[in-house]
Amino acid sequence: MKHITWTLLLVFFWSHSFAQRIFVKGKVIEKESGEAVVGAIVYLENKSQGTTTDQYGNFVLSGLAGSFDIICSYPGYDRFSLSTILKRDTSLIIDLVSTTLEEIVIKETMQNRQAGFLNIPVSKLKKLPMLLGEADILKALAMTPGVMTGQEGTSGLYVRGSSPDQNLVLLDEAPMYNTSHGFGFLSVFNPDVVKNVDLYKGSFPARFGGRTASVIDLTMKEGSNQKKKKELSLGAINSRFLSEGPIIKNRSSYLIAGRLMHTALLQLPKHIKLVTGKSVQDFVSFWLYDLNAKANYIFNDKSQLFFSIYSNYDFFKNASQRNDVRNSSFLKWGSMTSSLRYNRTLLPTLSWRIIGTYSRFNYQMQTYEERKTKDETITNQFSLDNSIRDWGIKTVIEYTPSNDYTVQLGVDHIFHRYFPGQIRATLDNKPSAISANNNSPIYTQESAFYTENNWKIGNTHLSTGLRYSILNVDNHIYSNWEPRIAYTWSISQAHSIKMGYSRMQQYMHQLTSNGVGLPNDIWVPATLRVPPIRSNQADIGWYYVLDTKNIWQLSIESYYKKMNDLLDYQYGSDIIVDYQKNWQDIVISGVQGKSFGIELMLQKKQGKWNGWISYTYAKSERQTPQINNGLWYASRYDRRHNIALIGNYQLTSKWSFVANWVFQTGYPVTLPSAAYIDYLGNLSPYYEGRNHSRMPNFHRLDLGAIYRSKNNKGREFGWNFGFYNAYNRSNPYYLEVIRNYQKVDEMLEITRLSVVKKALFPILPYFSYQIYF
Amino acid sequence: MRAHWLHICLAIILSLGACQDRSLFVLPPPSAKIVLNSTLIANQFPLVYVGKTWAVTDKKPDKTFYDNALVTLWEDGVRVGTLMLKNGMYELPSYILKPEKTYVLEAEVPNIGKALSAPTTIPPDIILDKPITNFRFQWTKREITLNQPALIQLVIHNNAPPNSYYVTSGVAFSKGKKITFAPIATENIEISSSNLDFGSNKCYAFFPELSGIQGKRSIGYNSQCFTSSEKEIGLVVDQAGRIETTNAIADEIRVYVAVYSAEYLAFSKAAQAIEGADNAFIETKPTYSNVKGGIGFVTAINRIEKSIKIP
After folding, report:
1. Which of 622-641 (A) contact B at CB < 8 A?
2. Chain A partners of B267 at a C-beta cutoff of 8 Å?
3. How would you label A702-734 residue by residue, b for 16+ Cβ within 10 Å and e otherwise?
4. Residue B108: what pLDDT?
5. What is the band of A580 on the pLDDT scale with cuts at 50, 70, 90?
6. Closest listed residue to residue A150, CA positions, set A126, A167, A133
7. What's the pLDDT band for A103 if we cut at 50, 70, 90?
8. Are strands A533-545 and A522-525 parallel, antiparallel or unpaired?
């Protein structure tokens, strides 16, 4: 308490020392919808001082009383400029209008952001052709340097050689634990409702913590507070809808959006047979949905309340039934996140925010068999439940005494409840195992206190932060200081150098099935036996704007990351296979990791032709005495060469085309190194150690076309169509070692082994139709 | 018309999505390694396989063994002799392996190298009381249908090194011929291998079927779990079944008991490699080898066989 009082006094005196200055506290909104614009550049033209709007569209600028020339710009919108004379602190709303011009000059876009930061407009990410024509923001991020997906059909991101669980995914500031829909074939984020995506791969601001690899900060649209709008998109597999509009014009708005996979309808006749007890063979059904809703209320120009909620659900069922035998198995998983946020401007220079969050993820797997005999019905059943649930609260005070300095002080606290897995098994009507693995709920509390300071000194920008994080688990306290520093030196208008260092601490682990996007990836906390993950990362980059209009940009970044106390599975172990055991008995803790990479990106941001080329050289290794005799080995997240070519071409106002090509070195995999006759006299594969081999290289070309027009009633509509995997490359999902048998002397004998590439997707056409009301 | 078009597209997409490529992936040839496999059985002469390795995806060579290896047997650090090749196996008929002796095998192949097995000790002779048999056994403990089950109670006096496994099995014979086709040839009364926690129970493990019946495994009992120096093991054996296609009633039951070292278990567990679709989800295990400079597995066992005539 004493410390807080001193801090507030310090803040007051600092504020007083700048009393001669005028402060403009403002918000940038899109004129048509009233939506806040995130990441817009606002600056004083004659003073060369500026800032960027935050997640809520807010900014603070200051200058000496007198004339102000305020400029605001954001890609896709007309430049805003205002010349005025100000004598006192002022509030300002900047309305941006969608542009019809191609060329927009944006200052400071690259200079004022730290190394490892990336923001690509959602509108561009949405255009990239994806599986089944479903725009996928997470997968689109994987086409940027240093970010990649596991394999085809997975949506977890590997950022700079780390596993997907090391990414902090925030949706309106609430953490999300599951980003995979449809067995990982698409991510859970509905592209229609995402307004902004910020990706931090390094030089992390101190306000973020709890993960070690990246922060993917997504902001949902708020909904137009000006006019009602509806969108409907019909696809072959999925359909989407969106509805938004004002609750009270200029003051409050809502947004509701949803997606539904309707493939289960194809199985409806079989489903009816199943329910009515008729004979059914090979019933397979899968469906999913997700639903976003958001509302906000502007009390006055100083305070605003936001409420957002997101829910998703996947359901897979496989069943068959004859007269006397019924078999079924299902897998269902879903997550929910919600946040309630209140922002208040206390002074023009001082704002306060408080956020309550709720996050939950759970899945259930069940197999069921029922056999009817003359006398009785015999049932065998196996089920596994797993969940994680968080309640969180965070608050932050932000103080901006000048254009050159901002400080944030914040406190986060999360109550976690982990349920790593409850097993129920019934064999021949008798309970065989109930919670046999002794995995009862684990309650932990995670807290963090941080300060984040941003200085602008001449043509340099310095961001320093310090985060102190604490975990309370099993009456044991883990804590760590996490220093952060990011430095940017703008050598000229065209060139800048950036560097940074971050220490991150992660108080949870994910027991993962080799990165395949199945939901049996189980979240577990750090415990007395399994310590938290710690990482130290340093990165440096050079940024070059090739032309005066900021159309061409080139960046080269390099990083080195060291990780401690990672987890790996023991040989042949898996949380499902070894369900009798406590999860702590099947993992190897204390695994060391290191990763290194060079990332190159050339972007053309504007023009009829636009897009980017990215190349990453990366290395990611692990070491533990229990694997490969203690030698460093390539981790599953190791991809040496990654190339992505993204191209958009706007042919006319109605037609545009997009193409992307990706290449990845095959990922490390454990394959046999030889064939031999084993001790039992059988032809067998010989496995030497972990990840000695590599999958075949992965590459794929996707082509898409977009048509937008208006129908006779003046309603806008559009068609998206194209080809996923246009040249029909067979990219294996996994390799299967097969034993080939032949009859030798009346006995079946293995005569040969073969390794078969199991690929999922050949060339896949896609289309969807959208209509806007 | 539009609905019809949607259905056609949907069908095409779904059928394409269901395709799975089955093209082969060729793995490069390995550097040549010597394979050394042997079970050194007490009171028998040594029989050793010295094999080759080849590329995983290559066809099995006509000759999988080296015919020019120099194979030497060492007993308690003293050279016993050189084994000679016969029918693809190296043997030394003039020498009988002894219980409680430690053996090492060495195989040298010109231009390939030398492989040396880890020292392995043959367990001491098994001390077994005379089996007690109940030929009219009524088994109600488990819901399994057996053909005229007989209960055989074995009392083993443990003298094996710690963590050894006593493996038991029994099989019925009719006129000297093995009744090979029976619903349940042998069942251990103490534990069922279908129990969910069998795999994680350190007191029991699977071993090769001692009676030689294909497709079955024998259960081994960890000597560490014996509560005293004696252990009573109950076996339930079918007395009826089929020999080829003919129904047969047993006139004799043969009981087998063997003692294995814990190392066999390490080999056996690793041999159950995670393959196929499972490999997409679970890290496979490295193959267990106790051969230095090569690959393979050499272990030592002791075993006995008892015949029980059915009255």
Report:
1. none
2. 679
3. bbbbbebeeeeeeeeebebbbbbbbeebbbbbb
4. 96
5. low
6. A167
7. very low
8. unpaired
B279–A432: do the CB atoms touch at under 8 Å? no
**pLDDT score of B214:** 67
pLDDT, position B80: 95
A277 conformational bin, left if phi > 0, alpha if psi -120 to 50, beta if neither: left
Is residue A515 scored above 90 in pLDDT? no
Q: What is the mean pLDDT of residues B30-59?
A: 93
Confidence of residue B85 (pLDDT cuts 50, 70, 90): very high
Predicted TM-score (pTM) of the model is 0.82
Taking phi over 0 as left and psi of -120 to 50 as alpha, with beta for the rest, A495 belongs to: beta
Domains of chain A: 23-96 (2.60.40.1120), 117-772 (2.40.170.20)
Tokens of B167: 């493996």
Query: How would DSSP label each residue in A261-329?
Result: E-GGGGGHHHHHHHHTT--EEEEEEEEEEEEEEEEEEEEETTEEEEEEEEEEEEEEEEEEE-SSEEEEE
> In 3D, which of A257, A276, A260, A168 has the Cα closest to residue A215?
A168
pLDDT tens column, B181-200: 654 556 666 666 665 556 66
3-class secondary-structure state, position A415: strand
Contact assignment for B9 to A427 by CB distance below 8 Å: no
* Contacts of B54 by beta carbon, 8 Å cutoff, 6+ apart: A674, A675, A676, B29, B30, B60, B61
- CB contacts of B53 in chain A (<8 Å) are 674-676, 686
Q: State residue A103 phi and psi, 5-degree precision.
A: -105, 125
Q: Using an 8 Å Cβ cutoff, are A667 and A689 in contact?
A: no
Enter the tokens of residue A485.
């520093």
Residue type, A335: S
Position B139, amino acid: W
Give Cα A355 to chain centroid, integer Å: 20
Q: Give chain A positions within 8 Å (CB) of B27.
A: 671-672, 693, 755
Contact yes or no for B286 and A688 at CB 8 A: yes
- The backbone torsions φ and ψ at residue A123, rounded to the nearest 5 degrees and listed phi first, read -60, -35
ipTM: 0.85
Look-up of token digits 């075993």? B303
Nearest-CA neighbor of A661 among A714, A703, A631, A719? A703
Tens of pLDDT, residue by residue over A22-81, are: 888 888 988 888 888 888 888 887 666 788 888 888 888 888 778 888 888 887 788 888
A12 three-class SS: helix
Residue A560 has pLDDT above 90, yes or no: yes
A242 Cα distance to chain centroid = 22
Query: Given an 8 Å threshold on Cβ–Cβ distance, is B25 in contact with A756?
Result: yes
| Residue A257 to residue A188: CA distance in whole angstroms | 13
Nearest residue to B127 via CA among B158, B152, B164: B158
Range of weakest confidence among A231-240, A256-265, A477-486: A231-240
**Are the beta carbons of B13 and A766 separated by less than 8 Å?**
yes
Q: Which residues of B touch A744 (CB under 8 A)?
A: none
**Residue B12 clears pLDDT 50, i.e. is over it:** no
What single string gives the DSSP state of each residue in A627-654? SGGG--EE-TT--SEEEEEEEEEE-SSS
Domains of chain B: 28-122+263-302 (2.60.40), 127-260 (no CATH)
Distance from CA of A188 to the nearest CA of B (A): 20
Contact present, A318 and A155 (Cβ < 8 Å): no
Is 50 exceeded by the pLDDT of residue A313?
Answer: yes
Q: Where in B136-216 does DSSP place strands (E)?
A: 149-157, 165-174, 177-178, 186-188, 204-208
Extract the tokens encoding B255.
């009981």
Chain-chain contact of B285 with A263 (C-beta, under 8 angstroms): no
Q: What is the average pLDDT score of chain A?
A: 84
